[in-house]
Amino acid sequence: MITVTKLTVAYDDLVAVADVSLRVPPGFVLAVSGPSGAGKSSLLWALAGAVRASSGQVEVDGLTISDRPTAAAHGVVLIPQGNGLARVLTARENLSLPLLAQRTDPEAVDRQVEQALADVGLQDSGDHLVEELSGGEQQRVAVARGLAQQGRIILADESTSELDGTNRERVLDLLRREAGRGAAVIMATHDLNVAAGADGHATMDEGHLTWQRRL
Ligand code: ADP
Ligand code: ADP
């Protein structure tokens, strides 16, 4: 369960997230839509401890998230916009690194990495350098890296923006599957068709969150 209480994120005098409260229990997918610059990424960064809240708080299962290591330790996984992959490493290496950093048992790392690559249909591309892959394939690698971490809270930032219809549905199915095994999923998207497939839908505009469909 992720609980956000009166969260505000400001960059100097620009308020990117304004007094946002929400709660996503295990098993649910929440979509947050809104125009570019609305504050969606800033919200997800704050939930992942990657930017500091100016005020308010973020809790996972009752424990306060204040920075990236705390968030990771509580099972918060961010699939960042623009994929965040290391371009000169292979797909498989990109998936393995966060797991090794979390001291996952090496056999489990291999199992989780191969499963996640297969989930996104890239089981034969593990040895390719990220920079050799197309934009859509890179986005699927980024999703696979998120899946491999088996997070309790999964934050997907525009994770279908470069995908064709088939792969978009595949990624949405995978995020729903993650909810099905007990994760809480929040996806930021500007695609209202994507938002329609979530359990709940909120819009953001100039940092303010409005519920369109409650969880
Ligand atoms: P409160 O306990 O005062 O309602 P919450 O933190 O639960 O405060 O929520 C703040 C506002 O956001 C309330 O209007 C609440 O109904 C709404 N809200 C929070 N989480 C969700 C959710 N997952 N789905 C729908 N509405 C929510
Ligand atoms: P969205 O994801 O909805 O496009 P963002 O969270 O990326 O929204 O941006 C919200 C606002 O914060 C925008 O006005 C953007 O220009 C600004 N912003 C985002 N990141 C930074 C930053 N690191 N420093 C200053 N302003 C930023």
Structural descriptors:
four-stranded antiparallel beta sheet; nucleotide-binding; ABC_transporter-like_ATP-bd; P-loop_NTPase; 10 strands; 215 residues; Rossmann fold; single chain; six-stranded mixed beta sheet; transmembrane transporter activity; binds adenosine-5'-diphosphate; alpha/beta
Q: How does this model look, in words?
A:
This protein has 215 residues and is α/β, with parallel strands linked by helices. It has a domain at 1-75 and 155-163 and 184-215: Rossmann fold. 34% of the residues lie in helices and 28% in strands. It has helices spanning 40-47, 68-73, 91-101, 106-119, 135-148, 165-180, 192-196, and strands at 2-11, 14-24, 29-33, 55-60, 63-64, 76-79, 153-157, 184-189, 200-205, 208-213. It has a six-stranded mixed sheet with strand order 6-7-8-3-9-10, with helices on both faces. Strands 2-1-4-5 form a four-stranded antiparallel sheet, with helices on one face. Helix 6 (165-180) links the parallel strand 7 (153-157) and strand 8 (184-189). Helix 3 packs across helix 4 (106-119) and helix 4 (106-119) crosses helix 5. It is globular, with a radius of gyration of 16 Å. The model has no long low-confidence stretch (mean pLDDT 97). Bound molecules: adenosine-5'-diphosphate (2 copies). Residues 5, 21-24, 200, 211, 214-215 line the site of one adenosine-5'-diphosphate.
- Name the hetero compounds present: adenosine-5'-diphosphate
CATH topology of the domain at 1-75 and 155-163 and 184-215: Rossmann fold
Number of strands: 10
Which secondary-structure class do the elements indicate?
Answer: alpha/beta
How do the strands line up in the largest sheet?
6-7-8-3-9-10
What is the CATH superfamily label of the domain at 1-75 and 155-163 and 184-215?
A: P-loop containing nucleotide triphosphate hydrolases
Specify the overall morphology.
Answer: globular
At CATH's second level, what is the architecture of the domain at 1-75 and 155-163 and 184-215? 3-Layer(aba) Sandwich
What is the typical, i.e. mean, pLDDT? Answer: 97
Question: What is the makeup of the main sheet?
Answer: 6 strands, mixed
Any low-confidence stretches, pLDDT <50, length ≥5? Answer: none
- Portion in beta strands: 25-35%
Task: For the record, give the distance between the C-alpha atoms at the N and C termini, rounded to a whole number.
Answer: 13 Å
CATH C-level category of the domain at 1-75 and 155-163 and 184-215:
Alpha Beta
Helix content: 25-40%
Topology as H/E string?
EEEHEEHEHHHEHEHEE
Number of helices: 7
Domain ABC transporter: 2-215
GO molecular function, one term: ATP binding
Organism: Kribbella shirazensis
Protein name: Putative ABC transport system ATP-binding protein
